[in-house]
């Protein structure tokens, strides 16, 4: 079941009805950052579809999101690696809501692993979920709706490839591919009225991503090393998406908004030191 909690004291910056009558499709919207992105869009009048592999998690999340926001949320089971399932999911979404104005490609898979320990299948799996998955869902939504009606596609990436983060060859490569794809599609689909953007979060508290990437080892030193002196919150990413998808973001396309408090500039990335750390010994045993 989804353990996700809705926001208790959300501070509105934009008018509450900016997405009235609009519909967003959020992959991985049943948990973590995707859940909060869906919530913030819904708080601004949007209906949503949340889609991923675990239907029980999605159903529970959809109920919570609708109750908190008064908007409709349709849960759909779908693996972003399976084009047939995606096509069916997009058809179901359009049958239900008649439109998809915003697509958030948020689904991803990750874990810490040095490249020398990655199996061929481990690398391929992350590439397929993140990079292929983003293309698959974007293409299905473009073909079936945005080609004629326009829209905004926002891909959730990361800052891993900016400095070649240690232990993240698989995810960094996949996210870099998504950022390149975003530029290509911005060029080709712009004339159809489609804007393509990426949001690259840094470390975000209270997420599966953080837990998997060493979130149980957050020290005061680590927090102090981040220029804004704190971890990101899911709400920070939801608000970045809100701005980009709104009419205030109409000139934004083909680029990435890094929403990480400057963490990529300063975070530890010394492989020699990491290799001698307790964390490395722990993941090497996995
Ligand atoms: N370290 C190294 N390799 C790992 C790993 C880890 N922690 N976890 C999985 N793998 C490898 C597996 O061993 C397998 O390779 P093999 O066949 O050579 O043994 C390969 O990755 C695929 O694993 P599998 O469990 O079959 O894939 P899946 O499709 O069921 O799940 C994952 C995909 C592995 C990414 C899974 O962790 C997942 O579903 N993640 C979603 C949630 C998530 O990652 N959230 C954070 C987002 S930032
Ligand atoms: P999360 O809660 O684990 O979210 C990942 C979601 O993707 C889950 O809901 C999962 O649902 C779905 N998913 C995974 N594989 C899928 C597949 N094959 N098909 C369909 N859906 C799939 O993790 P998160 O931390 O919120 O991460 C969300 C996004 O933010 C990811 O793109 C991640 O790379 C990015 N990010 C996170 C951080 C961070 O600090 N958390 C930092 C940088 C970037 P199912 O299991 O039901 O399929």
UniProtKB/TrEMBL annotation:
Superkingdom as given in the UniProt entry: Eukaryota
GO terms under cellular component: peroxisomal membrane
Keywords, in A-Z order: Fatty acid metabolism, Lipid metabolism, NADP, Oxidoreductase, Peroxisome
Molecular functions per Gene Ontology: 2,4-dienoyl-CoA reductase (NADPH) activity
Keyword Oxidoreductase carried by entry: yes
The EC number(s) this enzyme carries: 1.3.1.124
A Pfam family hit: adh_short_C2
InterPro entries recorded: DECR2-like, NAD(P)-bd_dom_sf, SDR_fam
SUPFAM superfamilies: NAD(P)-binding Rossmann-fold domains
GO BP terms in the entry: fatty acid catabolic process
Subcellular location: Peroxisome
Keyword DNA damage: no
Reactions performed catalytically: a (2E,4E)-dienoyl-CoA + NADPH + H(+) = a 4,5-saturated-(3E)-enoyl-CoA + NADP(+); (2E,4Z,7Z,10Z,13Z,16Z,19Z)-docosaheptaenoyl-CoA + NADPH + H(+) = (3E,7Z,10Z,13Z,16Z,19Z)-docosahexaenoyl-CoA + NADP(+); a (2E,4Z)-dienoyl-CoA + NADPH + H(+) = a 4,5-saturated-(3E)-enoyl-CoA + NADP(+)
Assembly mode: Monomer, dimer and oligomer.
Family indicated by similarity: Belongs to the short-chain dehydrogenases/reductases (SDR) family. 2,4-dienoyl-CoA reductase subfamily.
Name of this chain's protein: Peroxisomal 2,4-dienoyl-CoA reductase [(3E)-enoyl-CoA-producing]
